[in-house]
Design goal:
alpha/beta; five-stranded mixed beta sheet
């Protein structure tokens, strides 16, 4: 037997094992990336839930945001309107939606701080995935042009000189304008009476005529009336003056830095969003205020650009929730009028 040409059984087995081992390793090297890479996102249109009716204030803010997100995410953004209950219906819908990144919500104080401060809800606002905020829509303190005041300090003096006779208007009970007016009432230590209407449109004729003295309303809804002179603007509740009303001072400039609440926007997703999807969405939200077209569209309606990170957005609403709860208790507000 030629021992130099014939392999023993003992020599053949290890070589066979080595060949199988190397073949398996090569196969694994090819297959591994397929399993390691997360699936691509997004691959289809994304739904943006809106808690207000088409054509309203919320719609005006959402449209520039939609266009900006489409440019960043390279997918269509479909606006899904679920109006009612100051945004609570939309937020409740989001809480039950799949956490896959294809359903997001442009929310605000109504669903994330005021609603939770005033009633028991079917969702926990702290559980949502916060993606950031482009800023907020200031409220404008407006009064009848028949009222003999042109500034916030003059309004305070007028209210104090007419105790128990001054009414203020809102678009309904328990909304942000109502709570801010009650905050104002507590700060000036004067008795003023709340007159709730069914929206700004119903309140305006009485404000213009002087039947009610003043009210806080979202800037988008009142800009045209201010510019036409049918109502007079005394202050805006944002930290800075807004470009559409550059001559109207802030409430802080008028002596009330405590009144600094706006219709703060927040873009949120269901709880438990995958980290990769969360990161992509948060980056797209942060890009909004770096997009000149988005900024121009928002500012045209009086929106105040003040971007917040996801963590800062969540913290702001948690702080607001505590503030409104304390105000409701301190002022003994009946929000079931």
């Amino acid at each position: 037997m030629n021992h130099g040409l014939v392999e023993s059984h003992a020599e053949r087995v290890p070589k066979l094992h080595r060949r199988r081992f190397l073949a398996c390793m090569a196969s694994s090297a090819v297959a591994a990336p397929v399993f390691a890479q997360p699936s691509a996102w997004p691959t289809r249109p994304i739904k943006l839930v809106i808690g207000y009716s088409p054509g309203g204030t919320g719609d005006g803010v959402a449209r520039p945001v939609v266009e900006g997100l489409e440019r960043s995410l390279k997918q269509p953004i479909v606006m899904d309107y679920k109006p009612g209950a100051s945004g609570l219906i939309a937020a409740d819908y989001l809480a039950k939606a799949p956490a896959d990144g294809y359903t997001i919500h442009m929310s605000d104080n109504g669903a994330l701080s005021i609603g939770p401060a005033t009633r028991k809800l079917g969702y926990d606002p702290a559980a949502f995935t916060y993606l950031g905020s482009p800023g907020g829509l200031p409220l404008v303190l407006i009064c009848s042009p028949k009222l003999p005041v042109t500034t916030l300090p003059e309004l305070v003096a007028y209210v104090k000189s007419h105790p128990g006779t001054i009414d203020y208007a809102t678009g309904g009970v328990g909304g942000l304008p109502h709570l801010i007016a009650e905050q104002f009432k507590g700060l000036i230590h004067s008795d003023i009476t709340h007159v709730p209407y069914k929206g700004l449109g119903a309140a305006l004729p009485d404000l213009i005529s002087g039947r009610v003295a003043f009210g806080f309303f979202g800037s988008i809804g009142v800009l045209g009336h201010v510019k036409s002179g049918s109502v007079r603007a005394l202050a805006v509740t944002s930290a800075r003056r807004i470009s559409q009303l550059p001559d109207v001072p802030t409430t802080a400039e008028g002596g009330f830095p405590q009144i600094d609440s706006t219709y703060q926007s927040a873009i949120i997703a269901p709880p438990g969003l995958p980290p990769q999807v969360e990161a992509q969405l948060a980056a797209a939200v942060q890009q909004l205020t770096r997009d000149p077209q988005v900024v121009a569209g928002l500012e045209a309606g009086g929106f105040s650009i003040a971007p917040l990170s996801p963590a800062a957005t969540k913290k702001l609403f948690q702080q607001e929730l505590l503030k409104w709860k304390a105000l409701i208790v301190a002022n003994k507000l009946n929000l079931n009028e």
